[in-house]
Write a structure and sequence with these properties.
Structural class: mainly beta
Pfam families: PQQ_2
Protein name: Pyrrolo-quinoline quinone repeat domain-containing protein
Strand order of the largest sheet: 1-8-7-6-5
InterPro entries: PQQ_rpt_dom, Quinoprotein_ADH-like_sf, WD40/YVTN_repeat-like_dom_sf
Mean pLDDT: 88
Strand content: over 45%
Organism: Streptomyces olivoverticillatus
Helix content: under 10%
Number of strands: 36
Radius of gyration: 21 Å
Length: 422
C-alpha cells in the first residue's frame, strides 16, 4: 500500500511515454509518516470519523428513483480506482489526496461532465477489473472513443482497453484498441466495460459484443459470435452470457481462450448473475406458457446443479467468497436466502418462518459476510448462517476491502470511503 500511494504522490502527468494520459495537477498527496492503517480480512466496523470524500466520478449518474446501481469503483489495498466514461480516476481511500485522472488516447464518445443529469442512471462506466499478471497487478478499464479519420479515411469508434499498474497508479502503462461496428443499439453508444478474466484472456463487453484480449500480447484475439445483453460473467473457465435470438434470449457458455460456444441452455433466458467461482444463477423459462424458475448451473458445462423452488429468491446473487451464494428478491415481498454452492440447497432464508426477523436490504456480499440495512440501520450478517454478526458497523458499504468501505456520504451528497476499524 505504501508503494502505491508513494507512486501516486509523485505523479504530475506528462513525462515519459508510459505516463501518457495522466492528468491531475499535483497528483495524490503522500500520506503522513504515521503508521499505515491496520487491515482486516473481513471488516465488520467502519469509522465515521475517519473518512475520505471520493471524486464525483464514484457516484454520479449511478442512481435513479431511489435505486442504487453498482458504483464504477474497485479497491486495491485501500487505493480507489474509479472507471469513468472517459478514463480512470485513482485516489487514496484512507489518506487526504488529490485524484489522478488517466485519460483515453482518443476523444471519448461520452464525457463524465455530460452524465448525471435528471433522474436517470446515465453513467455507462462499470467497475474496473483489478488482476495480477506476471509480477504486476493491473487495473483494466474500457472506454469507447472516436478515432478521427485523416484525409478521406472514415472516422470510426474503438474500445480502448487501458491498463494501470497499481504500483504506479498515476500513469497509464499500456493500452490496446478494439474496432467497433458502426451500428449499435440506441442508447448504447458509450457502453463498454471489462467483464472479467479467464486464464490469460480478458473479456470486454461493448455495444452488445464480447471480445477477448490476450494479456501477454495485449491484443484482441477473438470476437464472440452473436450479440449479447449486458451482464455476462466469467466463471469456471467460461464466459456465461445472455445471447439475443430475435425476440428471445438464451444463456450460453463460451470458451474463454477462443470465444467459441462451449454449451447452450435449452431454456429461454431471463436473468443471469454470478454464483461462485464455477457457478452461475439463471432465471429461465423451460417452455412457453410456463413460469420462469431459478437454476444453479455449473459454469463449465451448463449442467443444472439445482432447480430452486418458485418462491425462492434468486434473481440477484453474489458469492460470499467461502461456500454460499446469497440471493435477493427485491420485489414487494423482500427476501434474502443463501444456497450451498455445490448442491444449491437452501441454507437459510429471511424473513424467517417464525416471523421474528426481517430481510436486510443487501449492499455487499464479501468474505463470508453480508452487509446491508435493516430497520433503518446498517447491519452485518454471517453469510453461512444468516445470523447477525455486527449491529453497529457504522455503514453498509457497497464496496469494501480490508482497509475501507465505500458508500454514500453520511449527511451529505457524494460517495465516501470510511476506514475499517474492526
Amino acid at each position: 500500500m505504501a508503494v502505491t500511494l508513494a507512486t501516486l504522490s509523485a505523479c504530475n502527468g506528462g513525462g515519459a511515454d508510459g505516463d501518457k494520459g495522466a492528468v491531475g495537477g499535483a497528483g495524490v498527496a503522500k500520506p503522513s509518516a504515521s503508521p499505515s492503517p491496520k487491515s482486516f480480512a473481513a471488516p465488520t466496523r467502519f469509522s465515521l470519523d475517519q473518512s475520505i470524500l471520493l471524486p464525483e466520478s464514484a457516484g454520479v449518474g449511478k442512481s435513479a428513483m431511489g435505486k442504487q446501481f453498482p458504483m464504477p469503483v474497485a479497491l486495491h489495498n485501500g487505493a480507489v480506482f474509479i472507471s469513468r466514461p472517459d478514463g480512470l480516476d485513482a485516489v487514496s481511500g484512507y489518506a487526504k489526496s488529490f485524484p489522478v485522472t488517466i485519460t483515453s488516447e482518443h476523444e471519448a464518445v461520452t464525457k463524465l461532465k455530460d452524465v448525471g443529469g435528471g433522474f436517470s442512471s446515465d453513467n455507462p462506466a462499470e467497475a474496473p477489473l483489478i488482476t495480477p499478471f506476471g509480477r504486476k497487478t493491473w487495473v483494466l478499464n474500457a472506454v469507447v472513443t472516436r478515432v478521427t479519420g485523416a484525409g478521406t479515411t472514415k472516422s470510426h469508434d474503438v474500445v480502448e482497453l487501458m491498463a494501470v499498474d497499481t504500483a504506479n497508479a498515476g500513469a497509464k502503462a499500456w493500452f490496446t484498441e478494439i474496432a467497433l461496428p458502426d451500428e449499435y443499439p440506441a442508447g448504447d453508444q458509450a457502453e463498454a466495460y471489462v467483464v472479467g478474466r479467464g486464464g490469460d484472456t480478458v473479456v470486454v463487453f461493448a455495444r452488445g459484443q464480447l471480445f477477448g484480449v490476450d494479456l501477454a500480447s495485449r491484443q484482441r484475439i477473438w470476437v464472440a459470435p452473436g450479440t449479447y445483453s449486458k451482464g455476462a460473467v466469467v466463471a469456471g473457465g467460461r464466459i456465461v452470457a445472455m445471447r439475443k435470438n430475435s425476440d428471445t434470449e438464451q444463456v450460453v457458455g463460451l470458451d474463454a481462450a477462443s470465444g467459441k460456444d462451449a454449451w447452450t441452455s435449452p431454456r429461454t433466458g431471463k436473468e443471469l448473475s454470478a454464483a461462485g467461482p464455477d457457478a452461475v444463477m439463471t432465471y429461465e423459462k423451460v417452455q412457453d406458457g410456463d413460469g420462469a424458475q431459478n437454476f444453479l448451473l455449473d459454469a463449465a458445462t451448463g449442467a443444472i446443479r439445482n432447480t430452486l423452488p418458485k418462491d425462492a429468491p434468486g434473481s440477484d446473487c453474489a458469492y460470499d467468497g467461502a461456500a454460499v451464494t446469497v440471493c435477493v428478491d427485491g420485489s414487494v415481498n423482500h427476501k434474502v436466502a443463501a444456497y450451498d454452492l455445490k448442491t444449491g440447497q437452501e441454507r437459510w432464508r429471511l424473513p424467517d418462518a417464525a416471523g421474528t426477523r426481517v430481510a436486510p436490504t443487501v449492499s455487499l456480499v464479501r468474505a463470508g459476510l453480508i452487509y446491508g440495512m435493516a430497520n433503518g440501520n446498517p447491519v452485518v450478517l454471517d453469510a453461512a448462517s444468516g445470523k447477525d454478526k455486527e449491529n453497529q458497523p457504522g455503514i453498509a458499504p457497497y464496496i469494501a476491502d480490508g482497509y475501507v468501505g465505500i458508500t454514500h456520504t453520511k449527511d451529505g451528497p457524494g460517495v465516501t470511503a470510511y476506514r475499517a476499524v474492526g
